């Protein structure tokens, strides 16, 4: 795919990917653009269709996958998620650096494509902190929270595999983590 090298953000649910990438895109709005994924999960308060996600039904998403419209897709915590070719192309057409926020399965699948992104893992300082942040976010049912915490344990181990990620940022203090991210991506602090 043409254009500057995309950036993949991955890491456990609740690690702080959205928080960090929103901060980055606010500061560098003419540099980065977000690849708006599709999902079958219900919108959270404040989330906008077409901005945070394309919120779709399972039937519509499966039909689009079958039609070859997705670069990757995955089932996570009981919902479908996926990156459409159109989402990435829309960012690249503006000559912006495309940012993808995807789970571990997405990382594995993107590695089989020719997208060639920089892979960044955002990790929590501990499982206890992760659980607290997810609970305090108040977006998940107990069932969804437990699924996300179980997935997080696998994700944390995956992130330790040599060569999977180019950069690992531990999101302890938000300001410190942001500075490390900015340094890694732009060489500025
Ligand atoms: N460094 C931090 N210190 C304290 N709280 C934080 C920090 N970073 C993020 N948070 C908070 O933790 C919660 C989870 O962050 P966020 O939603 O960005 O995670 P995420 O990795 O994008 O999760 P998901 O994968 O579920 O979308 C949010 O309520 C956010 O405000
Ligand atoms: N494989 C993909 N994973 C995705 C995509 N968009 C988001 N995600 C990941 O899903 C979980 C949960 O997100 P949430 O918004 O419900 O909290 C998180 O880890 C995201 O990174 C995608 O297109 N493909």
From TrEMBL:
Q: Which PROSITE patterns match?
A: GUANYLATE_KINASE_1, GUANYLATE_KINASE_2
Q: List, alphabetically, the InterPro entries matched.
A: GK/Ca_channel_bsu, Guanylate_kin-like_dom, Guanylate_kinase, Guanylate_kinase_CS, P-loop_NTPase
Species of origin: Nothobranchius furzeri
Q: Which SUPFAM superfamilies match?
A: P-loop containing nucleoside triphosphate hydrolases (SSF52540)
Catalytic activity, as annotated: GMP + ATP = GDP + ADP
Alphabetically list the UniProt keywords: ATP-binding, Cytoplasm, Kinase, Nucleotide-binding, Transferase
Provide the Guanylate kinase-like domain boundaries: 4-186
Main location (coarse class): cytoplasm
UniProt subunit comment:
Monomer. Interacts with RD3.
Cell compartments where the protein resides? Cytoplasm, Cytosol; Photoreceptor inner segment
Name the protein family.
Belongs to the guanylate kinase family.
Q: Does the keyword Transferase apply?
A: yes
Any one Gene Ontology MF annotation carried by this entry is: ATP binding
Q: Which GO terms describe its cellular component?
A: cytosol; photoreceptor inner segment
Superkingdom, taxonomy of origin? Eukaryota
Q: Under what name is this protein listed?
A: Guanylate kinase
Q: What is its EC number?
A: 2.7.4.8
């Amino acid at each position: 795919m043409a254009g500057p090298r995309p950036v993949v953000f991955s890491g456990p649910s609740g690690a702080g990917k959205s928080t960090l990438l929103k901060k980055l895109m606010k500061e560098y709005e003419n540099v980065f653009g977000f690849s708006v994924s599709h999902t079958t999960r219900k919108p959270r308060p404040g989330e906008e269709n077409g901005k945070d996600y394309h919120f779709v039904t399972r039937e519509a998403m499966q039909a689009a996958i079958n039609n070859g419209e997705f670069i990757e897709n995955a089932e996570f915590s009981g919902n479908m998620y996926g990156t459409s070719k159109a989402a990435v192309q829309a960012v690249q057409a503006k000559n912006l650096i495309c940012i993808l926020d995807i789970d571990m399965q997405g990382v594995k699948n993107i590695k089989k494509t020719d997208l060639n992104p920089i892979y960044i893992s955002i990790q929590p300082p501990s499982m206890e902190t992760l659980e607290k942040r997810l609970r305090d976010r108040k977006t998940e049912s107990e069932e969804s929270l437990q699924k996300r915490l179980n997935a997080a344990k696998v994700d944390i181990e995956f992130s330790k595999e040599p060569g999977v990620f180019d950069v690992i940022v531990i999101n302890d203090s938000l300001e410190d983590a942001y500075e490390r991210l900015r340094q890694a991506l732009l060489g500025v602090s």
